[in-house]
Backbone:
């Protein structure tokens, strides 16, 4: 099996079929095939009604389209998927300066289509807290985001230290 420029496993039809025959419980959700039409035809012929197999799409897609497809399949509970992340973040603010900063950042996140990412991060951080998992204080340009601070991704108050969000979201 090979990996494409996005780091996704790409197999030919025979490799994927071999994988399924060797281990019918194999997780193939993140494997793409070189010739999806041929594989989908084989699935229709051999595994009609077998719900585990999904129709494969072409692995030769651009990175933006790939990211969009992957975001729609993130494993997160429905309560997080339905969460109004903007409302939740604004609800965490205590001062007008915080509300203004969060509003500015949220517009930048929204322009980039990153609200699902913020929901996923909230789910991950909540899961870490629930399971007493320790993570770092923060590093790199991400500490310039007050939104990430409110989510708990890092512990650096970017308003207190006057860090410019543009250092993170360029």
Residues:
């Amino acid at each position: 099996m090979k990996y494409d420029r996005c780091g996704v496993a790409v197999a030919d039809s025979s490799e994927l079929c071999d994988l399924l025959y060797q281990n019918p419980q194999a997780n193939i959700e993140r494997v793409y095939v070189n010739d999806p039409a041929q594989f989908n035809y084989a699935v229709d012929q051999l595994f009609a009604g077998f719900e585990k197999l999904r129709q494969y799409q072409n692995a030769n897609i651009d990175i933006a389209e790939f990211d969009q497809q992957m975001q729609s399949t993130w494993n997160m509970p429905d309560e997080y998927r339905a969460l109004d992340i903007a409302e939740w973040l604004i609800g965490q603010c205590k001062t007008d300066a915080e509300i203004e900063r969060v509003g500015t950042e949220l517009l930048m996140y929204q322009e980039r289509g990153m609200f699902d990412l913020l929901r996923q991060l909230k789910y991950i951080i909540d899961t870490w807290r629930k399971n007493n998992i320790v993570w770092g204080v923060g590093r790199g340009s991400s500490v310039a985001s007050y939104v990430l601070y409110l989510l708990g991704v890092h512990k650096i108050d970017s308003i207190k230290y006057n860090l410019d969000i543009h250092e993170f979201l360029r």
